[in-house]
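Each letter names a residue; the fold follows as tokens. Both lines appear below:
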Amino acid sequence: MDGVPEGYGGWTFLTNHARVLASIDDDPGTRIRDIAARCRLTERAVQKIISDLEQSGYLTHTRQGRSNLYRIEQGTILRHPADAGLTVAGLLATLDQHENSHQTRPAQPARPQGNDGTEEPAGDGSTAATKSV
């Protein structure tokens, strides 16, 4: 079916709500169609997520002609008890910092592998624990 993004069946670190919020943070005047394409969701799923975020006070919008201009309520506290005290602004700043570091960082060379198929230490204090099976 055209226009429907390919789904992803594995687990992820970020929820679709966080992805949509980050997309809106990047461009408050973005269209639902563009958010859907960026987040690999259907437009209907994005509409539902935006509705959830608005109902919970994380997001508002104003009409500007035929478009919406979204406003993120930066001081809103994240919902999960384990995230107590963390704000939307903090989450978005972390995601933005991560995205910016990937845009400016040169590509990492492949690490050499040992005889057992595991990667050898990087020499920078980090360790890798992947093994080819």
Q: What stands out?
A: The longest strand covers residues 59-64. The helical segments are 16-26, 32-39, 43-55, 88-104. The two ends are 35 Å apart (CA to CA).
